[in-house]
Amino acid sequence: MPRDRWLIELLHEHHVFTTEQVAALGFDHVHTARNRLVLLNQRGILARFRDGVRPGSQQWRWTLDLIGAAYIAARNDQPEPQAAVVRRRINRLASSPSLAHRLGTNGFFVDLAAHARHATGARLGVWWSERTCRTVTGELVRPDGHGVWTEAGRTCAFWLEYDRSTEKARQVTAKLDGYAALHRATGLDHTVLFWLDSPGREQSLRTRLAAHPAVTSGTLLVATAGGGTTQHPAGPVWLPVGHCIRVRLAHLPTITGEGLAA
After folding, report:
1. Strand, helix or coil at 261?
2. What is the pLDDT of residues 137-186, one digit of tens each?
3. In the beta sheet, which residues pair with residue 192?
4. pTM of the model
5. Taking a C-beta distance cutoff of 8 angstroms, is the pair 20, 30 a contact?
6. Residues 198, 116, 246, CA angle at the centre, nearest 5°?
7. Are 67 and 46 in contact (CB under 8 A)?
8. The dihedral formed by the CA atoms of 74, 75, 78 and 81, expressed in degrees to the nearest 10
9. In 187-226, where does DSSP find H-type helix?
């Protein structure tokens, strides 16, 4: 079915989603999504995994299985993948220390895409994974994602830094050096978004970010949000560095505005 192909393409680009993320992206009810995912799993198109937790249970995480990977390979005129290779990839993903970060990053964009499904005039026009970002940014900087968000006639193109407080503040601030170099090399001057997991983390970073030469010179536009999963990324949660009023994502100041071609 077309929706199955659409989901395979998304998983090829973004690697992994939870059941609720898949439902938010393309289904009207999580029950319907769950039934379809189970069927695709039974047919070897999708694989699933989760950790055992008590009490309750963790949502299934979904990724491409052998037939799904073979579909992508055939589409790209590449050799058919071997079952053992696909199984190792799934096992590495399931045990990866960065899995929570990847799911969080994907969840940020899923929230935007789901909002656009039900809000007139809203659109997530571009959604790039870290891997696709690297085709543009190279070794200069490693964004967690790139997006172009439009709402009510206003557009914001951005690079995303999804922060889980695993890095020291100086390491986070140093990333602005890479974005400044990217700007000089390419002219791309999208807003740099820092999605932080707590108000305390946001407060501790904002002073450092505001003092960075790329910010003080006006080379980079930087904004932060410090509510984590308790806030919606489309809403009035973004505080541009150097400003004192939070605004909606689409209302953030931009220089270029339309972003990269999809």
Report:
1. coil
2. 999 999 999 999 999 999 999 999 999 989 898 999 999 999 999 999 99
3. 159, 222
4. 0.92
5. yes
6. 40
7. no
8. -50
9. 199-210, 213-216
